[in-house]
Amino acid sequence: MSAQTNREAHALANLVALSVVAWLTYVGVLMLLRGGTVTPDLLLVVAALVAVAVLADRPVLRELWPFPLIVLTWEAMRGLSADLVTRAHASDIVGLERALFGGLSGGRTPSEALQSAFHVAGTINPLDVVATIVYLGHFVAPVVIGFVIWRLNRAVYYRYAIAMVLVALAGYATQLIFPVAPPRLAFEFGSPLAVHDIVAQVLDAFRFVPFAAWGYGNLPGNELAAFPSLHAAFPLVGAFFLARVSRRAAWLTVAWSALVWFAIVYLGQHYLVDAVAGLGYAAVVCAITGHASFDAVTRQLAAIRLGAPIRLAE
Predict the structure, then answer these.
(1) Residue 166: partners with Cβ closer than 8 Å, 6 or more residues away
(2) Among candidates 175, 21, 169, which has minimal Cα distance to 89?
(3) Hey, how many other C-beta atoms are within 10 angstroms of the C-beta on 291?
(4) Strand, helix or coil at 89?
(5) For residue 312, what pLDDT band results from cuts at 50, 70 and 90?
(6) How large is the average pLDDT for residues 218-229?
(7) Cβ–Cβ contacts within 10 Å for residue 73, how many?
(8) Cα 55 → chain centroid
(9) Which residue has the higher pLDDT, 180 or 314?
């Protein structure tokens, strides 16, 4: 690793740390104002930040820690679940779905239309299984994509990592401000839809993976986090940065993205408008982290870290 790339790694690690600290501060204030509870998940995130602060010069930790933090910061919202339920949206989103897409699906939401066409209640078909596998790859695929980018170009990898963190935190913040129940749970908030929880059915049928079924039912994180869809956003971020190192791999990621977008709507985990919003969030963050001015920010952070003078222009 070159000295310049190493300095950028430190600078981007600092950006990640600042972003996560800002997020935890935001969640903590909400917990104080809205009667939330401090959960073990939140304490685990804090412990992870302390560990990174102590071991910040270890290259492996510095390069890999954004991905577990994405998961942990998502879990940290569990302490606000009671408050989110009282503010959850469903009927307005269902109305928007029908207004935008009802003309193409006979007045139904896209999730209802897809399940009506491809799913038979009480049975499991190959499409259900494939869609569930794609859906559950939410936290696996970004790591695989990150590993490919890491092997090919470290500098691009660091930008990919910070982009993933920024998209995740922007999505989480929106989900706390505007909690939305997914189609499969809309009935709990006054908007019953003809949508089945296919993921639960598939995991229940495959009893040789009991931990997966137990985890889906007992470790849901924030179930009112439909809008925006980070399932839709993450693959687009991956495709954007993969295009800088391997166009063939980027096209494969675009194909994967299409599968993800279909799966989340078909399974009733997200509305189509959630997916569109997720793509918008990803596009904005990619535009920021891919811009030349972002490189200037990382150089400034690296200069601050090394005690070098800051030059506003070159």
Answers:
(1) 19, 285, 288, 289
(2) 175
(3) 11
(4) strand
(5) very low
(6) 72
(7) 22
(8) 26
(9) 180
- Per the structure block, which two tokens stand in for 238? 């991956």
User: Which residue type does 187 have?
Assistant: F
Euclidean distance between CA atoms 122 and 104, whole angstroms = 26
What sign results for the dihedral spanned by CA atoms 16, 21, 24, 29? negative
**108-141 burial: b if 16+ Cβ within 10 Å, else e:** bbbbbbbbeeebeeeebeeebeebbebbbbbeeb
Which helix (DSSP H) or strand (DSSP E) does residue 137 occupy? none
What are the residues facing 225 on neighbouring strands? Answer: 180
Q: How far is CA 278 from CA 24, 72, 165, 171, 253, in A?
A: 22, 20, 14, 8, 16
Task: Give bridge partners of residue 180 from the DSSP assignment.
Answer: 89, 225
Size of the chain in residues? 314
Q: At residue 89, what are phi and psi to the nearest 5 degrees?
A: -105, 145
How far are the Cα atoms of 20, 179, 255, 269 from residue 86, in angstroms, in the given order? 26, 9, 38, 20
**Residue written as tokens 């935008």?**
100
Residue type, position 46, single letter: V
CB 228 within 8 A of CB 156: no
Query: Helix-strand-coil percent breakdown of the chain, rounded to 5?
Result: 75, 0, 25
* The model's pTM: 0.78
